[in-house]
Amino acid sequence: MTTICVKHLYANFRDASHRGVDLKEKLWQAATTYTKRDFGVAMEELKALSQPAYDYLKVIDPSQWTKSSFNTFPKFDLVVNNLSECFNAYILQARDKPIVTMVETIRKKLMRRYQLKREVIDKWENTITPWIVAKFELMHDLSIYFTPTYAGCGQFEIHNASRQYVVDLEKRTCSCLRWDMTGHFTTSNVRAFIALIANNPIYAEDALLESPSHPEWKTSPTGQTNQLQAPVGRVKMLAKQQPSKQSARLMGHHS
Questions:
Q1: 135/250 same-domain check
Q2: 39 belongs to a structural domain
Q3: Strands across the sheet with 173-174, in order?
Q4: Angle between helical axes of 21-32 and 6-15 (0-180°, round to 10)
Q5: Burial of 225 by CB count in 10 Å (0-12 exposed, 13-18 middle, 19+ buried)?
């Protein structure tokens, strides 16, 4: 999948005389939204601001610059080339050397990096990486604004104040498309996940690592499978918690 860095796209967009904070915000909104509906809304709002700016973007293939048209298979949603720029900065000292020396310099840098990572990993006692744990905790805080309704077979309808989503924990999909696109937790699928394991905490670790089929569920010391009982009526919710300061800042940023 070949994508255009939206920072560079915006620079060309601005140089083509499409200037102003409003146009910049709408371009980035169109680039970072996950659904085609939201992309269409952003583009129509940009069109209302400037027809020439709309025409400029309309001729560019959406699959090259907006998340709403990305393929969900690679689990990739970056719209900037920060990764390649970081790598170029990382090998900067080696780039001007002869080929063999350059490769050897990069190899040694990577060996040192891998050893440092191994030392950190050896001290970590959880089976889930620290970054994922921190992300899950943040999404847990934010998920208090969402209410799940169980639909059976691992499917939930998730509501918040303004929108609703369909989450399928078995297929690992969400109608917001963020889970499909990145494979990472979102507030909606975290709330569904919490509702699913509320009375079955032994299921949590496996579900975080992967979504197991019935034969792969953990068994208790007695040898009995910890089966999930479908809730009757509305799913019993966990007690609501006040979001952390970081969560509150995020919610304020997105509101």
A1: yes
A2: yes
A3: 147-152, 155-159, 164-168, 173-174
A4: 150
A5: exposed
pTM value is: 0.69
53 lies in the same domain as 101: no
Q: What is the pLDDT along the chain (255 residues), one digit of tens a residue?
A: 678 999 999 999 999 999 999 999 999 999 999 999 999 999 999 999 999 999 999 999 999 999 999 999 888 889 998 888 898 999 998 989 999 999 999 999 999 999 999 998 898 888 888 888 888 888 888 888 888 888 888 888 998 888 889 999 888 899 999 989 988 878 887 877 777 655 444 444 444 444 433 343 444 444 444 444 444 444 444 444 444 444 444 444 443
Residues 187 and 249 in one domain: yes
- Residue 77 belongs to a domain: no
**Same structural domain for residues 137 and 248?**
yes
Domain of residue 101: give its range. Answer: 91-123
Please check whether residue 163 is in contact with residue 175, taking contact to mean a CB–CB distance below 8 angstroms.
no
Query: Does 189 lie in the same domain as 233?
Result: yes
